């Protein structure tokens, strides 16, 4: 930990600095405010100690200037003046603590430790990594209870890694954190300290705690996931059922109180006391139902709680409020009458909005949703994505919630960091929108960001804040934030960013790599390197089979050896770069030739990267993932329709051409479908283009979920979708398409101010090679069948007809 100490009393500064260094802190010392300002502009500090009465620039002014410049590290003011007004001035200037001289060294060190605890996980002053424990209060390190003796610099290194377990520290970053300005060491010294720390940890039992990230630096190695014995599904269901039977009476008792409040509301006799009881019981239901297998019950209870809160602001209730409460209570009672196995899809979207005449019917809406439900192994795939907004600005949160309705996004709001932590133990949002400023909290949003990325690495976090300084942007990037949105911007711009992140996550499938090398041993080594990282690897020893393997594998990245029999890797690279379908495929070369001429030939042929043999695991994995991350991001932008999330016309055309080539090679059928939304122009004209966008967005989401990952699903423009099913004839394709469309057709879209909207579709189905041997011919045949379906009144799927045969051909 690095501290800046600004004090003009050199005798006092010497005593305090020595005490801090004995506690393994790195201390930089400045004698006036201007010098302290210059130090803060050059180095990164974990904490600053500022005397108030400084020459050139007093401590309070320096503190204010640091805060205005975006420095968020803890600041402690030291002064001999214990006047209350001076304390107020210092704290208002941005100080985190105010220490009156004279004070003991022990008190000062305790205050520093307290401030450091605020920056780390709440309630966790002792740092742990498996059996390794570091106690900052006593500068003590143990492993499984056995003391490990470290030098001060080794201790500081270990504390740095354990306080930031996911962060990779370069040598320059270690130098900046652990050495003062006056005694910078060379890189060899840093390596020697790392080596010594590793040796002592290994001797103490903590093997391989510090890992090297090739080309970047060092970090604390991630602990392996604990092996958990798989529990059979029947045992899990039995455990849930037993818990439900045990606590069901308590839950139903809470529902009785809610029902009493609803009855009193209908009779115009609801008291404030009963309303408050119903609000509290709804809150308890929202927190408990999800644990018993009723995730949608929690959602309904949350909506009940919000409704009772709104009633507290305005009584008596209006008819639409009473109708909404009736619908919510009816749905929740119906839900609790069944075993905890409800499908999320049955309830998603079932919350009733008032229709044009101000009424609603919760019971009928629930029945329609339940009738249209389908069994799916992953219930979250069949409900709208969930956005957790962590912001104390209630007005902004409600604007986002209202705007999100038209984006098919659910919104939950946490008005404090503690509330957000509690909610994250009960729900798993698809995205978190996080503000950094919480004036009443002991820590800020950066602490929660670090917690989320550590505990829930798959949940993307978008930071939305007025703190637009470069230091904040760097901190957010280091802690794993996925986007940085400066306030103020309109809610629909925020939701656009949310949808982009959601679509990017959906396209981030398991990476697929094709490795071509005539050395089978090397291919086995590569497979062993990549297997723990969840990469799907296909290997090939004979380059003569390259093209058919490439088309069958459809890799995200290609690994080539340079020297191979029959065809060299450079030749294969040039073949790939000359093909319109594959010319953007990332290519990584492996070669035992290190000379400049060979490397120049590789990049001239179109290589993206090069690794010299022998290959090491850290280098290979780092290079692969760096390349894949860039490619996936570019693909998400270039190949996806932004409104629906399905493939765009350009990308789908490439995929369909590839399937046609495979169908020709392996004598396989292929179905092509042209699908259209009926009366789409009328929907736009009567209900607005926002509703039309919702229709297309929901249709795209449903098609993505219900078709196979190998099928091509694309939007070619307007309301027209094109679907390609490789290996299916016209009859099988029609049967599958009919089942899926029936499922989608049964879904009802709720539109404020309009009756429920039920969408119908028309489509035409063509087959390769019966209706054409190329994409234009197949499209014309399917489009012609679509036209016949429209002419016949729509809401139907028709097969394309076989082309007529002339008398000469007969």
Topology:
Elements: E1 2-6, H1 10-22, E2 26-30, H2 33-42, E3 47-51, H3 59-68, E4 75-79, H4 84-92, E5 97-100, H5 105-119, E6 127-129, E7 132-135, E8 140-143, E9 146-147, H6 152-163, H7 171-178, H8 187-204, E10 210-213, E11 217-220, H9 233-266, H10 272-288, H11 295-313, H12 319-336, H13 344-347, H14 362-371, E12 386-390, H15 394-404, E13 410-414, H16 417-424, E14 431-434, H17 445-455, E15 461-465, H18 470-478, E16 483-486, H19 491-507, E17 512-516, H20 520-530, E18 536-540, H21 546-553, E19 557-561, H22 569-577, E20 587-591, H23 596-605, E21 609-612, H24 617-639, H25 649-666, E22 670-677, H26 680-687, H27 689-706, E23 712-717, E24 720-726, H28 730-745, E25 748-749, E26 757-758, E27 761-768, H29 775-791, E28 797-799
Helix pairs in contact: 2-3, 6-8, 9-10, 9-12, 10-11, 11-12, 15-19, 26-27
